[in-house]
Write a structure and sequence with these properties.
By secondary structure, the chain is an alpha/beta fold. The chain has two domains: 177 residues, FAD/NAD(P)-binding domain (3-Layer(bba) Sandwich); 135 residues, D-Amino Acid Oxidase, subunit A, domain 2 (D-Amino Acid Oxidase, Chain A, domain 2). Helices cover 30% and strands 24% of the residues. The chain is built from nine helices and 16 strands. The strands form two sheets. Strands 1, 2, 6, 7, 8, 9, 15 and 16 form an eight-stranded mixed beta sheet that branches. An eight-stranded mixed beta sheet has the order 4-5-3-11-12-13-10-14. A hairpin with a 4-residue loop joins strand 8 and strand 9. Helix 1 runs parallel beside helix 6, helix 3 packs across helix 6 and helix 3 crosses helix 9.
């Protein structure tokens, strides 16, 4: 019998499993499909929230912790798995800052490195930029990872450490006795453990409803496109009007993302494709000459304010939740994984757990 069962093999579930395994626990992960093929695979891998000063401070606290942790994490994962997550210090140009005072207050609170540039200076940093904005926020310390490679390296590392990952094994319900989960039900069998962690992304709310807990987490579709260009065509992550361009090392350029409240509908649309192309060409006109090699969609675990819900179930002693990261699962994931593992194991947490406790985030009205 495993010490812990983690429900969900996305980045959040696998990062959580890694923290628990590092503490000597035997961990099994259940995944309804294939590992990290939902929001984890579909995102951009920017290691910062977009317009970070517009988020509540608890989001910035998690992001700051993870940003410091990521270089070492990626180095260790590459060493153990042989797969490089491609942590890359690209920097982030934000070309449409209308709330400069709020940004400056955020810089003061969190000690962030932010420089204000004019349009000419911004084009010197990113020569392919098609805009000449009046004021640009430049965050030179923002990095990125290639999230599919991060997920692959995590999976290999976990399996090498003895973590069992069961694909095509959806959790279907709970066996609960005397205020504790005795087992999670799957199509094959009931699986027992000492502890259970729900890290099921957009599917978290449905999985927890039978336990009497209704959290404000809902699916939010995001569509993205990928261009194939020569290496070096774009060098900086650039953000404008909520859309971003992310350069990869091999010349691929990722453009995202739409924000669509359409339930669990995950298919791509022509409207989404056209909107993303328009944004791409406005930001980087030279992309119009490059082929689009992929167009896809993923479902984010939307939450009202972007603050994840991380901690114990308020009524079931051995059931924990780590979900609701919305658009920031990659950058917030290491911090919430550490926070969850600290709470489960009884260690003093690195971060104040109060803002993230599920009992403080109960759903009071429809999302």
């Amino acid at each position: 019998m495993a010490d812990c069962v983690v429900v969900g093999a996305g980045l959040i579930g696998m990062l959580t499993a890694q923290e628990l395994a590092a503490r000597g626990m035997q961990v099994t992960i259940l995944e309804r499909g294939q590992p990290a093929r939902e929001s984890s695979w579909a995102g951009g891998g920017i290691l910062s929230p977009l317009y970070p000063w517009r988020y509540p401070d608890p989001v910035s606290e998690l992001a700051r912790w993870s940003q410091r942790y990521y270089p070492d994490l990626c180095q260790r994962l590459e060493g153990e798995s042989g797969i490089d997550p491609q942590w890359t210090l690209s920097g982030l140009l934000i070309a449409d800052v209308e709330d400069r005072d709020a940004a400056q207050r955020w810089v003061t609170r969190f000690g962030a490195h932010l420089e204000w540039l004019d349009g000419v200076s911004a084009q010197q940093l990113e020569p392919r930029l098609g805009l000449i904005p009046e004021s640009v926020a430049w965050l030179p310390e923002v990095a990125q990872v290639r999230n599919p490679r991060l997920a692959q390296s995590l999976r290999v590392t976990l399996e090498n450490r003895g973590v069992e990952i069961r694909s095509q094994s959806p959790a279907q319900g709970w066996k609960i006795e005397a205020g504790r989960v005795k087992a999670v039900r799957t199509p094959e069998a009931e699986i027992s453990a000492d502890y259970f962690i729900v890290a099921s992304g957009a599917w978290t709310t449905g999985l927890l409803e039978s336990t009497g807990l209704t959290l404000p987490i809902e699916p939010v579709r995001g569509q993205m496109i990928l261009f194939k260009g020569p290496p070096g065509l774009v060098s900086r992550i650039t953000l404008y009007k909520g859309r971003y361009v992310i350069p990869r090392r091999d010349g691929h350029v990722l453009v995202g993302s739409t924000l669509e409240y359409v339930g669990f509908e995950k298919q791509t649309t022509q409207q989404g494709l056209q909107d993303l192309k328009q944004s791409a060409f406005e930001l980087i006109p030279d992309l119009a000459a490059q082929p689009i090699v992929q167009h896809w969609a993923g479902l984010r675990p939307g939450s009202p304010d972007g603050i994840p819900m991380t901690g114990p179930h308020p009524e079931i002693a051995n059931l924990f939740i780590n979900a609701g990261h919305f658009r920031n699962g990659v950058v917030l994931g290491p911090a919430t994984a550490r926070l969850l593992a600290d709470q489960l194991s009884g260690r003093s947490p690195d971060l104040d757990p109060q803002p993230y406790l599920p009992e403080n985030r109960l759903k009071s009205e429809p999302c």
